[in-house]
Automatic annotation (TrEMBL):
Organism classification: Bacteria, Pseudomonadati, Pseudomonadota, Betaproteobacteria, Burkholderiales
Name this protein carries in UniProt: VOC domain-containing protein
PANTHER family for this protein: BLR2408 PROTEIN, BLR2520 PROTEIN
One Pfam match: Glyoxalase
PROSITE patterns: VOC
Species in which this protein is naturally found: Pseudacidovorax intermedius
């Protein structure tokens, strides 16, 4: 079926957004990065395209959502451990992210998250097992 995912997210300042994610330890694919957009590598075959707002408008007839005032998408990434979740949230906070909620511990799943510089919500989760009654 599908082999890759590209999440497209508009951003107000592409240089600031790139610096933010680089501070979290992520890298960008230079083959798909220019002054209009940057290909954020999230994992094997997992990518987010950070697009300038003007460039993003070229892909839709709908108005762009201001992610600081409305939620247009929740991006959830799996992590290898609780420590990785906490480490990424700490790096995001240090790089200027908002962290509006405390961590959530559901026993089999631990999660926390942040809002990037543009307000996009990034949830991070570590699953140590299956939910009860699954």
């Amino acid at each position: 079926m599908h082999k890759q995912i590209f999440i497209n997210l508009p951003c107000k300042s592409l240089p600031a957004s790139k610096a933010f994610f680089e501070a979290l330890g992520y890298r960008f694919n230079p083959q798909f990065t220019n002054e209009h957009g940057a290909c954020l590598v999230l994992g094997e075959n997992l990518f987010a395209m950070l697009l300038t707002e003007d460039f993003a408008r070229g892909f839709t007839a709908k108005p762009l959502v201001d992610a600081k005032t409305a939620t247009e998408v929740l991006v959830c990434l799996s992590c290898e451990s609780r420590e990785e979740v906490d480490e990424l949230v700490a790096k995001a906070r240090a790089a200027g992210a908002a962290v509006p909620r405390p961590p959530q511990d559901h026993g089999f799943m631990y999660g926390h998250g942040f809002e990037d510089l543009d307000g996009h919500i990034w949830e991070l989760a570590f699953m140590s097992g299956m939910p009860p009654n699954a």
